[in-house]
Design goal:
Strand order of the largest sheet: 1-2-3-4
InterPro entries: SAV0927-like (IPR021415)
Number of strands: 4
Order of helices and strands: EEEEHHH
Shape: globular
Protein name: DUF3055 domain-containing protein
Helix content: 25-40%
Distance between the termini: 40 Å
Radius of gyration: 16 Å
Pfam family, one: SAV0927-like
Structural class: alpha+beta
Number of helices: 3
Strand content: 25-35%
Amino acid sequence: MSHVEFDFLSDSTEQTSTRYITFIGPSMHRFDLAITTTNRFYGKKLVTDMQTGVTAIIGPDDLEEEGYLEYTFKLDEEAGEELRAFLQQVVGPLNITDH
């Protein structure tokens, strides 16, 4: 086995908080989500659809972008609106800081 050298651009470890939630909206679409809060990504959340494994970095600006959730999570319009309504309750304001 040959030795491979990697040129790391970033490598860090941090404590995060993950909320696991399952709910069914009015359309009867079931959502199984993992929402991870981290100090990275300017306060945006990592939202993972546990059924498909799709993860997106989501903040309030992304929720306002028409069709973003539907495209990212492969949802129809009704399910996308239900997910948007839920995420508006859990995604806080952006936290942009100068480091």
